[in-house]
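DM between two lab members

TW: hey, do you still have the Helix-turn-helix transcriptional regulator entry open?
JB: yeah, one sec
JB: this one, 296 aa:
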Amino acid sequence: MVIDRTGLAEFLRRRREALQPEDVGLPRGLRRRTSGLRREEVAGLCHMSTDYYARLERERGPQPSEQMVASIAQGLHLSLDERDHLFRLAGHHPPARGAASEHVSPGLLRILDRLHDTPAEIVSELGETLRQTPLGVALTGDLTRFRGPARSIGYRWFTDPTTRRLYAPEDHAFLSRMFASNLRGVVALRGPESRAARYVELLSERSEEFRRVWEEHEIGVRPHEVKNFVHPAVGPLELHCQRLLDPQQSHLLLVYTAVPGSESYERLRLLSVLGAGELGTELGGTESGTGAGALG
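TW: and the structure you got?
JB:
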């Protein structure tokens, strides 16, 4: 496919001008003259330089890679149809839709953008964390930094002991059952050639505990609404987890809250002041993994 520079530039300008700062979780400010977002704001959302993004709008620069186009589509909060159109304008075939897609819907992103003072994350059906709020990073570490099988909390649970430090020891046995049960459900849904099936093979090779739990053939072990964290900076946290499903993409928005007036509520407020700091790496675990995929 050939890049349509004029069409790409016009589409980017129109989408940028249609977005307001509050649509993407940015402050409006007092001296805003543009009708939509500024180029530097979009560039920040897309994790690229302002100069690079500006050249695209001016029909200049190199053809953006598929990874760059995906980042732009997510930064501009594009729908799936708009994302696919952007890929074609940039001279690429659109990526697959459905469970394998990592493109988060604009609706979930808008909700996440408004949860700046709440721990929250968007995860795939395989337990890959795709987006986190700042307080979410402060709670669990930066979980988006993992690569390969280790992107999945279920995979890390059985292969990286540091993953378990954040969870109350009395919950470990249940969580092992839950992660194995979830994986079994995804394998049944996606088939023997799926990534989930591949991770069953990898975990069976690497973890005796996984083999033992997997042999129980449990299905439908649901997560508890209340999760017990053990945070290295603020101590024990009893948090309620609310789940919002995007059925089209099989993505879940997880929101963690504490009962007002409780000890956990005060500790969560303290965590919001402390922020992630140096805790991101410590909380996230140590294994980076290779390849593609996840579970959990």
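TW: got it. The domain at 5-95 is CATH 1.10.260.40 (434 Repressor (Amino-terminal Domain)). Strands lie at 120-123, 129-132, 226-231, 235-246, 251-257.
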